[in-house]
Design a protein that fits this description.
Elements: H1 3-11, E1 17-24, E2 28-31, E3 37-45, E4 48-51, E5 58-60, E6 65-68, E7 74-77, E8 100-102, E9 114-123, H2 131-134, E10 140-142, H3 150-164, H4 170-191, H5 202-205, H6 209-220, H7 228-235, H8 239-250, H9 254-272, H10 277-283, H11 289-300, H12 304-310
Length: 311
């Protein structure tokens, strides 16, 4: 797997939640700050305003996508002057008792212009949030454009159709489409970042072919007996320049990232399967269960078996 696919695979805990919501102006809806979550809003019909706290209002139109990777609170409204009077919406809101709600939150307005919004939220495990996500800004706004991002528009249309007209298989289709939509949002954002230059962080790393090659090697085969020299060969660089380049962009040395990723993968396997510890150890590059347990405890603060029982 490549880096971005892996991030999508490990970031979420439980099932994502989504809603297809219709409002009549005037309306305003606050969305609560939920640390350890990520969410997005997609405007399907009409227009509205994003009202972030302590920032200027942002106009949104049909096809606009807003991704909030850190769960920051915000408000959507038909006008910057409209106050949100309803209770703040959160992932455990009883008004959204179904994980995939459709047209269930229209409580305000007096017959004014209609705005339809596709809302979705992911619950994340803060202990294994990938640094790629931590590097993202508080808000990513992808304005609609008829000649750009056709794959994103297609994913939005498919997801909106499933939420608007639930059918057999919707419960399987919606999580997959939410993951696909999230992947497209992240892919577009990273692709649109400036070339490396003097920047650092994951946006620069994913636009740097040598570092990206090494990252893909780690994610493709985390159990391989990687050394700095072997990863440098994957990157097409000599050992010392590669190590400096990787650490500058990623923020940690290559083998430190390798260990972190192995332990993150191990945590996912412990949560999602009943495979023996010896098998999991082998899948993340440890020949002995004892060595794996020690490395896991250093990273997660608890033994693998205890971690599995608590999960």
């Amino acid at each position: 797997m490549d880096v971005l696919s892996d991030v999508i695979a490990v970031m979420r805990t439980g099932r994502p939640r989504s809603a297809h919501v219709r409002w009549h102006a005037p309306w305003g809806q606050e969305f609560a700050s939920v640390p350890g979550s990520a969410g997005f809003q997609v405007i399907l019909q009409g227009s509205c305003w994003l009202l972030p706290p302590n920032a200027e209002p942002v106009p949104l139109g049909v096809g606009d996508v807003v991704f909030l990777p850190h769960g920051r609170g915000h408000t959507l409204a038909d006008s910057p002057k409209t106050l949100a009077t309803a209770p703040a919406c959160g992932p455990d809101d009883p008004r959204l008792s179904e994980p995939y709600a459709s047209d269930s939150v229209d409580r305000t307005g007096d017959g004014g212009p209609v705005t339809v919004v596709l809302c979705a939220t992911y619950q994340l495990d803060p202990s294994r949030t990938h640094p790629l996500l931590r590097d993202l800004p508080d808000r990513i706004h992808l304005p609609a454009h008829p000649d750009r991002h056709p794959e994103l528009r297609s994913a939005v249309e498919l997801l909106a159709a499933e939420l608007d007209h639930p059918r057999l298989g919707t419960d399987a289709a919606v999580p997959a489409l939410l993951d696909t939509l999230l992947l497209y949002i992240l892919r577009i954002w990273f692709n649109e970042q400036p070339a490396r230059g003097n920047t650092t962080g994951w946006a620069a790393a994913l636009n740097d072919p040598p570092v990206t090659a090494a990252l893909h090697a780690i994610h493709r085969a985390p159990a391989a007996p990687w050394t700095v020299a072997k990863l440098a060969a994957e990157a097409g660089l000599s050992r010392a320049p590669f190590a400096r380049r990787f650490a500058t962009l990623i923020g940690q040395p290559p083998l430190s990232y390798l260990t972190w990723w192995r332990m993150t993968t191990a945590a996912r396997l412990l949560r999602a399967s009943d495979a023996p510890l010896k098998s999991i150890a082998a899948q993340v590059g440890y020949a002995s269960e004892f060595a794996f347990a020690n490395a896991f405890k250093r990273t997660h603060g608890t033994a693998p078996g205890t971690f599995r029982r608590r999960s």
